[in-house]
Amino acid sequence: MDKPSPTARARAAKRAGRGAVTLSDVAAAAEVAPITVSRAINRPESVSDALRARIRAAIDTLGYVPNRMAGALASAKTGVIPVIVPSLSNVVFVEVIEGIQETIETRGYQMLLGSTDYDLDREAALVATLLGWAPPGMLIAGLRHLPRTATLLRNAGVPVVEFMEHGARCIDMNVGLSHYRAGAAMAEHLLTRGYRRIGFVGVRVRDDYRACQRYEGMHRRILEVGGAEDVLFDYSGGVGQDIGWRALGDVLAMRPVIDALFFANDEMAVGAILRAQRDGIAVPGRIAIAGFNGLPMSALVTPALTTIISPRKLIGRRAAELLLARIAGERPGRRRFDVGFRLEVREST
Amino acid sequence: MDKPSPTARARAAKRAGRGAVTLSDVAAAAEVAPITVSRAINRPESVSDALRARIRAAIDTLGYVPNRMAGALASAKTGVIPVIVPSLSNVVFVEVIEGIQETIETRGYQMLLGSTDYDLDREAALVATLLGWAPPGMLIAGLRHLPRTATLLRNAGVPVVEFMEHGARCIDMNVGLSHYRAGAAMAEHLLTRGYRRIGFVGVRVRDDYRACQRYEGMHRRILEVGGAEDVLFDYSGGVGQDIGWRALGDVLAMRPVIDALFFANDEMAVGAILRAQRDGIAVPGRIAIAGFNGLPMSALVTPALTTIISPRKLIGRRAAELLLARIAGERPGRRRFDVGFRLEVREST
DNA sequence: GCGCAAGATGGTAGCGCTGTCAAACCCTGG
DNA sequence: CCAGGGTTTGACAGCGCTACCATCTTGCGC
């Protein structure tokens, strides 16, 4: 048999070896040095038109896809940014993630997504694994972590943005809103409207640190007012609207004195409103209902839901921008951003 | 100055170099060969207890995190599985993703998430980039891709599962349901109930291939019945409930003969129901409403929504399992799975 | 026509890890 | 006390790519 053609050789290598066309294959096909191919790909302007064309042709015929591992290893630049959130089922995180995605993608980064299911041990494990990708930075939801997680992150020597809630102590940078103040604001509103027995409804509130803070903010404010009191309803399973639906029934049956319910999120609150509709319970006449997040749906139910609007997409974008700026070597003046919130008073209170 | 100690050298390397503790640093600290550290991490049983303990101690004190790039490059095993979906705003994809995540995570894989925003060119670009991670397999939503995307995928020489819809022609493997049949099933139901002027409401239906198929399935069935007809309402912007809300208004005002609306998803359908509630429009008396997906919410609105339940999490799990099996070298008997759907008739039709 | 700067290309080494095979070690039975 | 087998440890090379520096070309002013 005679000498195989370059194409045939490439194909053989592809099948036999690790199953991929490499930069050297392209170089051989284009009859240039490997490094030139690398340049043609990464800084096209530094290669002459003629060569660039020849190389691109070779790339196309061979179907070459650069191996990013090798590139990352050689250049110590990863192009992957890990994002850690507690849950994907919650729309809220998804919106933040979208904000992040939009922002980092235009700058050529890829998102590595991890979810902890509100478990701090899993979070620590996840951080360790993801750090293994030698990322240029890291985005992680929340300010509360295990000590070892914080240590890992600090030692990694890369910028870290903790997003969602705003607080005094952060590992590196922080973008979010004060859930404590949000809770207090809602309490204030409900008290002003004359409600005095207020229930807070959540799921696994102990684990959901931010919901917990909203409750605390509310609780503190209510304590300050004579004759007012609150109750915490902490469900352990279920999701969103189902919980709200159930909770409304439970509360009316078992704690009829309650005159207002502040739900940990809009989904639950909407569930409660739908239940009220179905069962003919007057809202806010018999009981007031409030939510948190400001999902579009909250404006569409009848009665329209009083809620606190959180700028979720903004959090994602801001967090990503901050991280990218730091990765690019800039030193932003501020490391902590309070994106704020807005109390949207509607018909349900 | 005299020669720096290994430890000092390691520390210096850490600060100066790439900013990370390497396997060699650990080896130096534990006074063993690098390869032994590698073994202690990857196959602990093949290292004596004494050494293993010493190595683990060194790892902990130094805060070593293995560099997965290097590992992947050396072993040609990646541990990253790319997942490509058209959108993250749609809960449906999120649920599928959760199913995938759950499944691959327990097997030590990480998910690399990409979203195309229903743009096939972006999809092609994304596939190319993600293939650069030399993944052991790939999960991609949908069966319709650009020819060059399919070529890339086929040439990559790794298993690929196309999920969401079920169809005859797939690149490698396929898990999903027939949207065409789902549309036909809903048409059948509406016709049986006596509706004859049926509208289909979607957003960017041309791009949303699956919605399009549902419409086609419905359309075909309706054509078969004398005196029945359908109209396609294709909105170009907005999301979920807002669209449904608007669409109901538009249809009643501009095409009052329409007696039933089949929405591209439950979110829109619920939006329409909420609008009907608010405006006192009788559903299904004045107009029937149906959705698609079977979100929990669909059962809670009044009237409860007739919809088609799609097994989203199952799709994710099944797709991931199939892929993992193939990655593990198994040859599953079947390459295409129809997970089916269920028409859930409720009050709104 | 020559010298020099700027631009285009290539050679070499090494990123951090693991596969492969070789060497060193340990224990047992005769 | 030693051969023989298994177990534990190590040396070496190389994964695919890029940083760095060296070399070669080209064009231009004087």
TrEMBL record, chains A, B:
The keyword DNA-binding applies. The lineage of its organism: Bacteria, Pseudomonadati, Pseudomonadota, Alphaproteobacteria, Acetobacterales. InterPro entries: HTH_LacI, LacI/GalR-like_sensor, Lambda_DNA-bd_dom_sf, Peripla_BP_I. Keywords: DNA-binding, Transcription, Transcription regulation. It comes from the Bacteria. Residues 21-75 form the HTH lacI-type domain. It comes from Acidiphilium iwatense. SMART domains: HTH_LACI. SUPFAM superfamilies: lambda repressor-like DNA-binding domains (SSF47413), Periplasmic binding protein-like I (SSF53822). The keyword DNA-binding applies. One of its GO terms (molecular function) is DNA binding. This is LacI family DNA-binding transcriptional regulator.
